[in-house]
Amino acid sequence: MSEHAHDHDQSGADQGGDDGHHGHPDSHYIKIWAILCVLLMISVLGPELGVQLVTLITAFGIAFVKAYMVAKNFMHLDVEKPIIHYILGTCLVFMVLFFSAVAPDVMEHDGSNWEHLTAKQVVADGLEAMEAEQGGHGDDDHGDGGGGH
Amino acid sequence: MEATHDHGAHDHHDEGFIKKYLWSTDHKMIAFQYLITGMAMGLIGAFMAYAFRMQLAFPGMHVPGIGVITPDVYNALVTNHGTIMIFWVAMPVLIAAFGNYCIPLMIGADDMVFPRINRLSYQIFLLSAIVLIWSFFVPGGGFGGAWTAYPPLSAEELYSLTPTGSSLWVVAVGLEFIAFLLGGINFVTTAMNSRAPGMKALDVPITVWMIVIASILFMASVGPLLAGAVMLLFDQNLGTGFFDPMSGGDPILWQHLFWFFGHPEVYVVLLPAIGFSGEIIAVFSRKKLFAYKTILLTAIGTGVLSFFVWAHHQFISGIDPRMANIFTITTVLISIPIAEMVFLYIATLFGGSIRFTTPMLWALAFVAEFIIGGITGIFLGASGADIYFHDTYFVLAHFHYTFFPIAIIGTYAGFTYWFPKMTGKMMSERLGKLHFWGTIIPFNMIFMPLFVLGAAGQHRRIYDYTGFPELSLDWMQMTRVVATSSLLIMLSFQVFFFWNVFASLRNGKKAGKNPWRSNTLEWTAESPPGHGNWAELPNCYRGPYEYGHPDREEDYWPQNLPA
Amino acid sequence: MQKPIATNRSSMGIPTGKLAVWWVIGSEIVIFGGILASYLMHRLGHPEWANYAQHTNTMAGAFNTLVLLTSSLTAVLAHNAAERGDGKRAANFLLLTVGGAVTFLIVKGFEWNYEITHGYVISSNQFWSFYYTAAGVHAMHVIAGAILMVWVSTLARKGQELQRVELIGLYWHFVDLVWIFLFPLLYIAK
User: Fold this and answer.
1) pTM, to two decimals
2) Which of A21, B93, B235, B320 could form a disulfide with B38 if both were Cys (CB 3.0 to 4.6 A apart)?
């Protein structure tokens, strides 16, 4: 464990960066940015194809890739000390835990000996309205507010 | 070879009253601000308990100091009693006050890492307290939907009857969360990074570790509820329907958001109290804290496990029964690490040279009373039994046998232990012991009977049982009177505490630096410590619990003495 | 105010400011995680929301994503300059980042104005409630970040507290990360 703790820098300017410097030229970051922009374009165009699997991969898959790139290259998360990874990882795990434990109650509308009648009705009404809209005039941006209440 | 020492900041030029007491960035002053605010809120919460217990014992009668209590006032009283005691008493006193005071001193630092953020966090906290109190005086009065604030009661004015009060309550709680998030950053970063040279992780006193783990638990668990509070506020005021099934929402979502935080929260307040007790038990047994590393790992394990038990608060609210199965198992499991910590404390006492000072009495009482709370929790954690016990006074007695030791006994333990350091004066042992017994004995007489009432079917949050023939039997009503009378006695004995504080401040014996002959670093500073804590910051050469070491003539070995 | 000695110690080998920012990010993960997890479980249970989501402005969302990505670039370029000790250059890049934040907010302003005047308000239905709430909480973090960034850049221009350039940058990248996920969740899932 580096004991450069004894280096009391009274002037107030801490060393930046974990091991001192992140030492990349500006062009490196600009290159990363360019890749991110290309990925963004793909994620916007992908869903236009209308294939659900393609949408999932381009919209959400790319989101994870972009996030990884920002974390690694801009935040320099890969060269941070392990404790930081544990902190962030634990928080993410807790979010997965939260989702997994609550989704069976909130996402599902029936389960082991129960049925959420109101929610099922709301879904059915909404889907019906969707059918009607698509059956009627074509997709119109100024259409009704989407089944208000 | 002499190790180098950091030099603390020396006294500044004379500070004005405002800068010194109200605008200070000194961690000790901020600690006092939290302490005084927390205790003041405690008096308000105690008054609320007095009021609603008078109503329960003597339904419909005029209660001195407040008048006849109507149902909506009763609901507001029980709601705000719970909310205040947890968020505005337990947390500020146990974590913010003692954390602020003890952490820098115990790790040999001159202040917290971010003194101005520290000051800001108190100010936000104070604002949150003001917002909450304001909610009592708006049209409709204070929020009365229980501290758990389940929608639709909390979301719809039609049901809550407190349109402004409900929103102010949510805003107050939200602000309090933000204050503690900010404060927590300071505690964790300071404890992790600003330790004295030579102080390894296992040389850090258990008090500091516990407060740090508690802060981490808080920071990792409060997020979803902060999100939920925003959603609830919008449901109350903007016509959204996050928790309204007719709009596609779900009230169960609120419950999950609330308890995902709510359960770790009880460990957030528990751990500091356990920390104080451990510290005190070691010092007044003149013995090493038994299996310190195990206690630490157990605390961390408890913290992690506490994220996996929350739905035991929702066993009968319509969660999927398969979830209930899982949560029963995890809930019963979590009693194991806590029991283990209790055993380790008992092992610390065993063979020790025990001094029954006032702090020691409080620390021992904490352990004993908490055991009762913990054991009764197992009944509730078993989902089958909970079907009967849920929402009865059995639950209430259980959590008062946990919360009261945490918030009240824990506070008195820490306060009487560190008072000499904070003020330079010793407290009166006589008054301290009188206060102690006058609190503990009535406490048990309030809540022990409530287990019986709960098992007999008495529901919670009912303002008058005379409408329920099976709950207004003579013995039941008499039991309510006994509980209320005991509360009145207990509250009266608190006078001795305040008397002790003021008399000791004026005439108490001078404490000197280390009246308890403890090893930890705070006892090497002056009593009270000056700004910057030490002229020369200490180094650390050993662990905090080297009592009764064979190589030493004295029975203690302070951490700062070179080998 | 003179900093306490405590601030400059580093028992963990990480500067205290950076350690603190990572903790802040950790607690923000659970805040946004709470909002997004709640949104996700509703979205997956309510297929009819695909219809409501049709009315979000994908182009505005995509443009804003571009704006935030670019502002992350300028933030890391500021950090690079600060590491070389060039306070003025760092301050300028930070101000560019703030410019990105302002652009983001202006675009959002126009976007929301259009949606609100066409009847898609926060109480229209549950989808729109989540849409405004999630993006709104995010926007509040954008505003807070921009304000802090102006303050850091003012000090950096004078060569002071240069280590804070990286710290505000880390916070900013996190705000960008949240949006990277918000964009597909709110705009693309149709």
Assistant:
1) 0.92
2) B93
